[in-house]
Design a protein that fits this description.
The protein is α/β, with parallel strands linked by helices. Helix content is about 40%, strand content about 20%. The protein has helices at about 5-15, 20-30, 35-45, 95-110, 120-135, 150-160, 190-200, 220-230, 250-265, 275-285, 320-335, and strands at about 20, 50, 55-60, 85-90, 110-115, 140, 165-170, 180-185, 210, 240, 270, 295-300, 315, 345, 350-355, 360-365.
C-alpha cells in the first residue's frame, strides 16, 4: 500500500469513528508501528488530524463542537466546548508532559485549556487561580501547595469554589480528611518499590535513597523505599538529601555522598530525579567509580534518563496519561457536578531497564 493510500484510509477511519488508536491502525494497515507513527505525524503536521495519547482524532475548526457522544470517557459524559483552567507548579520539568496530556483531552472534547504557572507557594497558587476564575474558566486542574504556610486555607478555599476542582499529583493532607475534591495522582511510593525490587533482583542487599531537597515527591519516594526495604528484610542503607544538580556547592556534596556510599558498602542507589542522577554519575566517573560496575543507579522520573552516559534505568511516571485522566475527571464533574461520588485515581509508574544498573536493556511494566 502506498503512503497516499494509507493516509486516505487513516483519515477515513478517523472520520468514521471520531478517534482511532494507533494499535488499531497498525492492525488495519498491516504495517509497523513506526510506519503508522510516521503517517499520523505527517497528517497531523498538515492539520488533517490531531494526535492524542495513544491515538488520533479529527481536527476541529476553532470554536466548533464535537459530534454528540464523541466526548464521552470512562468517567462519564463531558461538557463540549468547556474552558478549562490549569495551574501547574512548573513549566520546565515534569509538568509539561502532564499539561500536554490534559490539553489533548480537552481539545478532543472541543474545549480549550488555559494554563498558568505557579511556584509551590499557596499565595501564588491562589492568585493564579483567581485570575483563571476571572477569565471565566468552568473547571480547574490544580497542583496546589499542600504543606507550609497557607496551604490548608488554600485547600479549604478550593473546596468552597462554585466550579469543579481536580487536584493533580496532590491529595488533601490528613488535616482535611473529608475535603471533597477529585484527584489524579501517581503511585510514587510504589514506583520507589519497583526500583528497589529491581536492584535486589540483581543481587544488591543495600539500596540507598538520594532525593532532591526541592521536590515534593521526595516524601512519597522515601515512604515507598522504607516500606520496601523493610518488607524485603534488607540491610539499612543511606538516606540522603542533596542540592539540585548545578546549584552552588552541588559537586562537593555529591562527592561527599559517594564517599559515604563507599564507607558504608552501598553499591546501589535510587536517585530522584534524572538531573541529580546524571550529576552523581558524572562525579562518580571523575572519582574513579565505575557505573554500573561499582555502583548501580536507578533514576526516578525518566525525563532525560535515556540520554545519560550510561543510559539510566529509570522509574517512569505516566505523566501524559495523568494529565489526560485529570482532564477527563474535570470534564465529567462539570457535566454532573452533584451526582458523582468523589474520585481519587492513582496511576502506577513503570520501570524502564537500561544500562546504569547492569541489567538487560528492555522495558518492563510492573
Amino acid at each position: 500500500m502506498l503512503a497516499s493510500e494509507r493516509h486516505q484510509l487513516i483519515l477515513s477511519l478517523v472520520r468514521e469513528h471520531g478517534a482511532v488508536r494507533l494499535t488499531e491502525l497498525v492492525e488495519r494497515l498491516g504495517v509497523t508501528a513506526v510506519t503508522v507513527r510516521r503517517d499520523v505525524t505527517e497528517l497531523a503536521d498538515r492539520g488533517l488530524l490531531t494526535r492524542v495519547h495513544g491515538g488520533v482524532t479529527l481536527t476541529r475548526p476553532r470554536g466548533s463542537h464535537p459530534e454528540p457522544g464523541r466526548a464521552a470517557s470512562v468517567f462519564g459524559p463531558a461538557v463540549p466546548g468547556a474552558l478549562v483552567g490549569m495551574v501547574a507548579p512548573s513549566v520546565e520539568y515534569y509538568w509539561p508532559t502532564v499539561v500536554q496530556g490534559a490539553q489533548s483531552t480537552v481539545a478532543a472534547a472541543g474545549g480549550r485549556l488555559v494554563l498558568r504557572a505557579s511556584s509551590y507557594d499557596a499565595a501564588e497558587d491562589r492568585r493564579q487561580i483567581t485570575k483563571l476564575l476571572e477569565r471565566g474558566v468552568q473547571t480547574l486542574l490544580v497542583a496546589p501547595a499542600t504543606s507550609g504556610r497557607g496551604a490548608l486555607d488554600l485547600l479549604r478555599w478550593l473546596g468552597s469554589l462554585n466550579v469543579p476542582v481536580v487536584l493533580v499529583e496532590r491529595v488533601p493532607p490528613p488535616e482535611l480528611p473529608t475535603l471533597a475534591l477529585d484527584a489524579a495522582t501517581t503511585a510514587h511510593a510504589l514506583g520507589a518499590g519497583l526500583a528497589v525490587r529491581h536492584l535486589v533482583s540483581l543481587g544488591h542487599r543495600g539500596v540507598g535513597l538520594v532525593t532532591s531537597r526541592s521536590s515534593p515527591t521526595s516524601r512519597a519516594l522515601r515512604t515507598g523505599w522504607r516500606e520496601t526495604i523493610g518488607s524485603l528484610g534488607l540491610d539499612t542503607a543511606l538516606d540522603l538529601d542533596v542540592p539540585v544538580y548545578g546549584s552552588p556547592g552541588w559537586a562537593a556534596e555529591y562527592d561527599t555522598l559517594l564517599a559515604r556510599c563507599r564507607r558504608a558498602g552501598v553499591h546501589a542507589l535510587l536517585v530522584h530525579a534524572d538531573r541529580e542522577a546524571i550529576g552523581l554519575i558524572e562525579r562518580a566517573r571523575d572519582g574513579g567509580i565505575a557505573v554500573p560496575g561499582e555502583l548501580a543507579v536507578v533514576s526516578y522520573d525518566d525525563e532525560v534518563a535515556a540520554a545519560s552516559d550510561p543510559p539510566l534505568t529509570a522509574v517512569c511516571p505516566q505523566k501524559h496519561r495523568l494529565g489526560a485522566v485529570a482532564a477527563e475527571l474535570a470534564l465529567a464533574r462539570l457535566a454532573d457536578p452533584a451526582g458523582r461520588p468523589v474520585h481519587r485515581l492513582q496511576l502506577w509508574p513503570t520501570l524502564v531497564v537500561r544500562e546504569s544498573c547492569g541489567g538487560a536493556a528492555e522495558s518492563v511494566a510492573q
